[in-house]
Amino acid sequence: MAYKVFFLTLGCKVNSYESAAIAKLLSGEGFEETQDPSQCDVYVVNTCAVTAEADRKSRQMIRKARRVAPSAIVVAMGCHTEMCKDEEGADITVGTSDRPKLVPLLLERLQIRSAEKENDLYDAGGRFFEYGAVLLQEGTRAVVKIEDGCNNFCTYCIIPYSRGRVRSRSREAVLEEIRDLAGKGYSEFVITGIHLCSYEKELGHGPSALGELLSEVAGIDGVERIRLGSLEPYSMTDELIGMLRDNGKICPHFHLSLQSGSDSVLKRMNRKYDTELFREVVRKLRSAFPTASFTTDMICGFPGETEEEHKESCAFAKEIGFTHIHVFPFSPREGTKAFSMPDQVDPSVKNRRTAELREISDVMEAERAREMVGAEVEVLVEKVPEPGLFEGYCREYIRVLGTCDSDCLKPGILLSCRVGSADGFTLRGKGFPVTGS
Ligand code: SF4
Predict the structure, then answer these.
(1) Any long-range contacts for 112-121 (C-beta under 8 Å, 24+ apart)?
(2) What atom in ligand 1 is closest to the CA of residue 230?
């Protein structure tokens, strides 16, 4: 009988990718994934440490795993465990740097593999650990990780300590994975990494290395859309923007990490750009992709943030016209410089500023949806909830719901859709199959 494994994944897309990757490795060893945690033999908690709150939740989820599945082997992995190597309550703890050890450690526990074979799975010499091809659940959109680690040391961020320095996945491995996924029907690829534009930085390459890789991805049969994970504004060189424009498959949706719209706060955060550079990058991307959507992450209440700086931040967010802002109240992470910075902002002030910025984000998101009414968009169908109805995303990454009379309506097809109305953040319209999809 196969061992059953349950995954609880906290945090970002990279964590989702890694859980899926580990699930695939375990499936190759005869494990079966289960959605019922009480029935599992192995309970994996993939933790997050991006904020103190994420840390707290990670600890709570590990304790919960023990309660829900008392006889299971509880595995704690991910960013939080990198900082707390002996996580209380877990049978096996692996951080981000030693996660390749997870499978052999598990196998050892379960006594189904010899010790010699286990050594084959260890990552030698701190290189990018090759998981092999990973299929995600959605069936149409797959996340492909190409890079890990970061060299930047923003003053609030633990990632360079927890995940280490930049390591890139080989081009051959990335392309092979995408070929495999495209052959299985996936047509939209989200290319992700901790610091995407640092791809191949350790080999001495600049941001155009990412552009070169993406050109090769675009040439793979079956690849219809390429989305990019979070991008750092200062890495968006003219050369890279030109390569993205000429690629033909890049979706006009860019997640450009802003964090604050106040230059003095950006300086204290040790971010390597100012609002002027950010504005210029957005201008260039808009000129290359006239329908582009921009999303971002912003932090409210960074140490020393004054009311004036908060107002500057809000005004800059409005000026850019983001489609969505992920807003976080600043949460001090032990081990970072910002943890011991003076003038920590009172939690009630942080929460009020966070709510204000979220409100601005909601207004801009609804405005962007309204602006799209009357436009012709391309929708990749992800779900057909009932005959004649579809759900999917347009290239600008706005959700579209609609009707389509075609007999060939099914997940994975491309529709051309005239937007008839906007319902909050969602577009509605009637779709027609794009010839050849
Ligand atoms: S760029 Fe800054 S925020 Fe992003 S992972 Fe690196 S250190 Fe963290």
Answers:
(1) 112/29, 112/30, 113/29, 121/25
(2) 4
Number of folded domains in the chain?
3
Statement to judge: residues 312 and 186 lie in one domain: yes
Q: Is the distance from CB of 155 to CB of 270 less than 8 angstroms? A: yes
CATH number at residue 164: 3.80.30.20
Q: What angle do CA 216, 229, 355 make, to 5 degrees?
A: 165
pTM, two decimals, is 0.74
- Over the stretch 147-187, which tens digit does the pLDDT of each residue have? 988 888 999 998 888 778 889 999 999 999 999 999 988 99
CA of 152 to the centre of ligand 1 (A): 6
Can you list the residues of the chain whose pLDDT is less than 50?
112-126, 133, 137
**Do 231 and 117 belong to one domain?**
no
Q: Which atom of ligand 1 is nearest to the CA of 257?
A: 4
157 lines ligand 1 (CB under 6 A): yes
pLDDT at 224: 95
* Ligand 1 contact, 195 CB (< 6 A): yes
